Amino acid sequence: MRYAYYTLAFLVILTLSVMGFRGANATRPPIELWPDMDHQAKYKPQAESKFFADGRADRAIPAGTVPRGRTTAADASYLRADEAHYAGKNADGSFVRGFPVPVTQQLVERGQNRYQIYCAPCHGAVGDGNGITKSYGMVATPTYHDARLRDMAEGELYNTITNGKNTMLSYADKLSPDDRWAVVAYVRALQRAANATIDDVPLEQRGGLK
Ligand code: HEC
């Protein structure tokens, strides 16, 4: 039993001598049993450099550099330089009116699908602001069917989805730029449907109206 105590005492002393007391000050660097790759000759971001004449470790991007990445034909948009398409804005910063992508049946159906997942819980299936969240106290969700939102530029609707607005959060992480335009197209369809007249219904279908 005595040897067990000796062994324990030896281990404690060994541990303390190698690792020291936690929180204790030391003037010498700690002994590192496994330094792994902790110490490397490298520059940290925005660090100073004595090597380069301008004193910066970060080098300026050479003129004419184009971002590389997903460069398949389907995603040649990596640069996202097209402001109208990716920000919903014209060159002068105003919001785009109309759509920078072709509006097809397929796009509107995609928009309906995304809308019902991401927007309908608050804005309601028909865009009147009466989503399920209303019954849980979220009463500030606006309808799309007032004049202000009907006259709003498509680019501004796109911008609201991208960046959010006041208490509404951004949906940029859930909807790709093209999906956002699809949702805008579907919002337009909802607005059109809520303000339709009998003349909008094809003749052969009017008989089915109640
Ligand atoms: C969690 C609830 C919620 C969800 C989900 C939601 N919204 Fe909103 N939305 C709001 C609220 C609340 C406002 C009012 C914000 C304000 O102005 O205070 C709003 C405002 C808006 C407006 C009006 C902005 C303006 O200029 O006044 C638009 C357009 C809009 N949402 C579109 C969408 C679309 C499209 C989606 C789906 C991608 C969506 N919202 C998803 C809650 C939501």
Automatic annotation (TrEMBL):
<dbReference type="GO" id="GO:0009055">
    <property type="term" value="F:electron transfer activity"/>
</dbReference>
<dbReference type="GO" id="GO:0046872">
    <property type="term" value="F:metal ion binding"/>
</dbReference>
<keyword id="KW-0408">Iron</keyword>
<protein>
    <submittedName>
        <fullName>Cytochrome c</fullName>
    </submittedName>
</protein>
<dbReference type="Pfam" id="PF13442">
    <property type="entry name" value="Cytochrome_CBB3"/>
</dbReference>
<dbReference type="InterPro" id="IPR009056">
    <property type="entry name" value="Cyt_c-like_dom"/>
</dbReference>
<dbReference type="GO" id="GO:0020037">
    <property type="term" value="F:heme binding"/>
</dbReference>
<keyword id="KW-0479">Metal-binding</keyword>
<feature type="domain" description="Cytochrome c">
    <location>
        <begin position="106"/>
        <end position="191"/>
    </location>
</feature>
<dbReference type="InterPro" id="IPR036909">
    <property type="entry name" value="Cyt_c-like_dom_sf"/>
</dbReference>
<keyword id="KW-0349">Heme</keyword>
